Amino acid sequence: MLLTTLRVRVQTTQGVWLLLKG
User: Fold this and answer.
1) pLDDT digits (tens, 9 = 90+) for 1-22
2) Which DSSP state fits 5?
3) Residue 9 Cα distances to 5, 20, angstroms
4) Residues in contact with 20: Cβ distance below 8 Å, sequence separation at least 6, in sequence order
5) pTM of the model
6) For position 1, what pLDDT does the model report?
């Protein structure tokens, strides 16, 4: 479960980073 939460958090972070960078 921890791995799933971490993975979702990483995906969210990447999404926000792409929005800020793009």
Assistant:
1) 799 999 999 999 999 999 999 8
2) H
3) 6, 16
4) none
5) 0.49
6) 79
pLDDT for residue 18: 97
Cα end-to-end span (Å), the chain: 31
What's the farthest any 2 CA atoms get from each other in the chain? 31
Alpha-helical segments (H) within 1-22: 2-21
| Angle (nearest 5°) at CA 21 between 4 and 12 | 15
Residue with tokens 């799933």: 4
